Amino acid sequence: MSRLGYTVTSTNAGALIYGIATNSPAASTLHVAQVITAVNDTARHDGLFLVAALHGLAPGSKAALTVEESSINNVGQFVRGPTVTKSVTLGTPPRGWSTPLRRADQADRVSGY
To answer: Does domain 13-91 have CATH number 3.40.50.300?
Structure first.
């Protein structure tokens, strides 16, 4: 965007949810465009730390996620929302997620939780 003349800023504010698997435990609690900023009151500034925090917890255990309830409006703009705490029960991680910091492109997805 900056090449087109727009001013672009970025910040590591948390893990942006850009997809959730259908019928996953997360599907009823989290939504696309929300940002997870902490797990059990410990700030998580990017997806890698989020995955590491969740992999440290056993399937079936509960975690408190601090979530900015952001959304995408009808013209495609990101709209920040209020920050809330959501209690979630962790499911089994998806196949292939045996190590928490394995791949950066997996880090921002929470589809298995």
So the answer is: no
